């Protein structure tokens, strides 16, 4: 309450805690944690306290009060009284209630104030959970420590959910939910799936039971890799499944490709990233026949060597056929375009519009004018340039074009800030788009939309209207594409599964469900598994099970 930062030992690890209504205290925590913009979770003593600053539906209240006690994403009220830098540039805030006796005691003494309660770690590293290591891990962040002698054997992060159309949408499925077993209609015995590179989990199969491990995070450093290996070995020892088939992502450079070599599997199966997303949603809904899949995602290595992430598939857990995708555009500098979305926008504008796109880049990004000829040369000469057609990169490009995010300080920041502006209650007309045919596939081309967005910017149109119209364009293009595919393949089932991390976007999810349903399709979304890469290992396991038996996975 005096503005200091406290490290508090919970059930799954330490949290960093401060007064959520004190702007200076939150800024101090952000500075020390090296987390400048990413939203911070908060903990309130009661539902009544939460309702003072956020809207809480009946389903959200039930989730907050559940035994699992996850962080629930709630809409801020107009009279939101927490510090703005708790969740800057956001219309939502992540909230949880006390879930341990110590939390209850702490919040009871906090004069009714809501407290920031975020994982005790330096951003990108695993959560601190041992008394003797806490000072070493977060000694430069916390001013004081609240410890006790109840050891935590295995760290686990808080689960994060939102409620969309009265159903649970898991951003992160961890504390409270894992490793509870899920049931599979088929034999998944002896399969170990290693997940992806970001938001990764692992999944084990024993007889007809499926065990998903805890949220591990991004495999970008040695600490997280060691954390991954420790938790995997623990679950293997505890559950004691056979270890016959290892399953990894098709990407040639993911760390899991090295991890699988530390085991003695009879067979190692590679699964294309978005097929795993598709299979996860099929199995999550007990769909045992073929279906369409719309996969909207940030990054996934494609079978043609390009980066996929805006896909329409048809198939099942065993096989899939790619029917449509976003037109590829250049990413000069590769992953640098993810960290600096303006680079991605330049690559997209130049790839789609040529000289006109370069002129627009000079107009939109005057502060980067000296770098633009370098990026153009990189694209023209193919130097350090890859090609991508992903929903995440399309969102990043538009976000930077309209001035929301020049450089991302956390994963998905540009796309998240753009999505936060979209208003489901705002009537808008979609921008123009084209659906072309190329190599027996449909190609989504949004070059006309980008030109119209530039025109709207010149007319100083409100960015909320631009964002909403952009979202609506994606929805209408996908519905249009699905109608064309149904006309081309009338024998195909009209079931559609929606998967990929972009489906955390409430506007895309709600509007696609409504519009596709109105067009006669039966739409399925994730129920128990995250639509993002946290569900990837589950889908990988289902693909391997289907391929092993020569049958679909459920």
Alpha-beta classification: alpha/beta
Strand order of the largest sheet: 7-1-2-6-3-5-4-8-9
Radius of gyration: 23 Å
Please estimate the helix content: 25-40%
In round numbers, the mean pLDDT is: 95
Number of helices: 18
Unreliable residue runs: 550-554
Strand content: 15-25%
Number of strands: 24
End-to-end CA span = 53 Å
The major β-sheet equals: 9 strands, mixed
Dominant shape:
globular
What features would you highlight for this structure?
24 strands; 554 residues; alpha/beta; nine-stranded mixed sheet
Brief digest:
With 554 residues, this protein is α/β, with parallel strands linked by helices.
Describe this structure in words.
Helix content is 35%, strand content 22%. The protein contains 18 helices and 24 strands. Strand 21 and strand 22 form a beta hairpin.
Question: Topology of this protein?
Answer:
Blueprint: E1 6-9, E2 14-19, H1 23-33, E3 42-43, H2 47-50, H3 58-65, E4 71-75, E5 92-96, H4 101-108, E6 115-119, H5 131-138, E7 144-146, E8 160-164, E9 167-172, E10 181-183, E11 191-193, E12 203-206, E13 209-212, H6 222-239, E14 245-249, H7 256-259, E15 267-271, H8 273-284, E16 291-301, E17 307-315, E18 320-326, E19 329-332, H9 336-339, H10 341-353, H11 355-364, H12 372-381, E20 385-390, H13 391-401, H14 413-421, E21 434-438, E22 441-445, H15 447-458, H16 463-488, E23 495-499, H17 506-518, E24 522-524, H18 536-549
Parallel strand pairs: 1-7, 3-5, 4-8, 11-14, 14-15, 16-23, 17-20, 18-22, 23-24
Antiparallel strand pairs: 1-2, 2-6, 3-6, 4-5, 8-9, 10-13, 11-12, 12-13, 16-17, 17-18, 19-20, 21-22
Helix pairs in contact: 8-18, 10-11, 10-12, 10-13, 13-14, 15-16, 16-17
């Amino acid at each position: 309450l005096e503005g200091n930062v406290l490290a508090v030992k919970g059930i799954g690890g330490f949290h960093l805690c401060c007064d959520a209504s004190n702007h200076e205290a939150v800024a101090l925590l952000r500075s020390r944690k090296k987390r400048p913009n990413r939203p911070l979770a908060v903990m309130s003593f009661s539902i009544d306290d939460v309702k003072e600053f956020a809207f809480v539906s009946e389903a959200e209240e039930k989730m907050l009060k559940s035994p699992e006690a996850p962080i629930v994403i709630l809409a801020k009220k107009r009279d939101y009284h927490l510090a703005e830098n708790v969740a800057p540039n956001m219309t939502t805030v992540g909230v949880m209630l006390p879930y341990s006796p110590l939390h209850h005691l702490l919040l009871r003494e906090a004069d009714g104030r809501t407290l920031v309660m975020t994982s005790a770690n330096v951003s990108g590293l695993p959560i601190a959970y041992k008394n003797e290591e806490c000072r070493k891990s977060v000694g430069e962040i916390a001013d004081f420590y609240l410890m006790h002698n109840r050891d935590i054997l295995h760290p686990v992060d808080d689960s994060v959910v939102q409620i969309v159309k009265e159903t649970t949408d898991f951003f992160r499925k961890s504390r409270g939910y894992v490793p509870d077993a899920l049931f599979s209609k088929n034999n998944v015995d002896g399969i170990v799936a290693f997940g992806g590179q970001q938001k990764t989990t692992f999944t084990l199969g024993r007889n007809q039971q499926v065990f998903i491990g805890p949220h591990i995070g991004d495999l970008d450093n040695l600490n997280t890799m060691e954390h991954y290996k420790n938790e995997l070995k623990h679950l293997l020892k505890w559950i004691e499944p056979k270890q016959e088939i290892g399953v990894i992502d098709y990407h040639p450079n993911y760390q899991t490709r090295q991890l699988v070599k530390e085991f003695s599997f009879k067979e190692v199966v590679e699964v294309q990233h978005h097929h795993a997303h598709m299979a996860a949603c099929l199995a999550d809904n007990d769909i045992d026949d073929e279906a369409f899949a719309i996969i909207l995602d940030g990054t996934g290595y494609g079978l043609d060597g390009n980066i996929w992430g805006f896909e329409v598939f048809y198939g099942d857990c065993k096989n899939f056929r790619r029917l449509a995708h976003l037109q590829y555009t250049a990413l000069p500098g590769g992953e640098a375009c993810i960290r600096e979305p303006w680079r991605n926008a330049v690559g997209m504008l130049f790839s789609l519009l040529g000289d006109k796109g370069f002129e627009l880049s000079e107009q939109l990004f005057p502060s980067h004018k000296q770098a633009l000829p370098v990026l153009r040369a990189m694209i023209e000469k193919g130097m350090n340039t890859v090609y991508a057609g992903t929903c995440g990169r399309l969102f990043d490009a538009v976000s930077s074009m309209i001035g929301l995010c020049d450089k991302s300080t956390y994963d998905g920041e540009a796309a998240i800030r753009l999505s936060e502006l979209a208003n489901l209650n705002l009537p808008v007309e979609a921008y123009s788009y084209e659906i072309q045919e190329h190599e027996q596939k449909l190609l989504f081309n949004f070059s006309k939309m980008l030109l119209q967005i530039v025109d709207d910017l010149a007319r100083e149109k409100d960015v909320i209207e631009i964002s909403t119209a952009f979202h609506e364009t994606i929805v209408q293009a996908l519905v249009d594409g699905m109608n064309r595919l149904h006309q081309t393949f009338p024998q195909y089932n009209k079931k559609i599964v929606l998967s990929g991390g972009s489906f955390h976007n409430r506007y895309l999810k709600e509007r696609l469900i409504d519009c596709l349903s109105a067009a006669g399709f039966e739409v399925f979304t994730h129920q128990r598994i995250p639509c993002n890469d946290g569900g990837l290992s589950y889908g990988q396991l289902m693909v391997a099970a289907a391929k092993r038996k020569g049958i679909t996975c459920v």
